[in-house]
């Protein structure tokens, strides 16, 4: 059976994961290799969250603009 493509985590789930990673890194109890892996995952989550926020901000700007001819489209987050 082919594996299903993994659905990206919601913004809120990603934020929770990032907070957990930060807590583990701040504890100072992780071995170096594990800490580097956690840091790498945290950077990925932060970048993904930043992209999601930028997309939402752009959508809000379009919705609040006075340009009645501005193109509106359903919000479709990009899947990386």
Describe this structure in words.
The chain has two helices and no strands. By secondary structure, the protein is mostly helical. The protein has a domain at 11-64: Helix Hairpins. Helix 1 runs antiparallel to helix 2 (32-64).
Question: Which features does this protein show?
Answer:
80 residues; rod-shaped; 2 helices; mainly alpha; Helix Hairpins
Task: Give a short overview.
The chain has helices at residues 11-27, 32-64. The protein is mainly alpha-helical. The protein has a domain at 11-64: Exonuclease VII, small subunit (Helix Hairpins, Orthogonal Bundle), CATH 1.10.287.
Produce the secondary structure layout.
Blueprint: H1 11-27, H2 32-64
Helix pairs in contact: 1-2
The oligomeric state is: single chain
Per CATH, which architecture of the domain at 11-64?
Answer: Orthogonal Bundle
By helix and strand content, what is the structural category?
mainly alpha
CATH topology group of the domain at 11-64: Helix Hairpins
Order of helices and strands: HH
Q: Unreliable runs, pLDDT <50, ≥5 residues?
A: none
Largest sheet composition? none
**Highest-level CATH class of the domain at 11-64:** Mainly Alpha
- How many individual β-strands? 0
Query: What's the name of the CATH homologous superfamily of the domain at 11-64?
Result: Exonuclease VII, small subunit
Head-to-tail CA distance between termini: 23 Å
Summarize model confidence as the mean pLDDT.
83
Please count the helical segments.
2
Percent helix among the residues?
A: 55-70%
Estimate the strand proportion. Answer: under 5%
- Shape estimate: rod-shaped
Radius of gyration, CA atoms, in whole angstroms:
17 Å
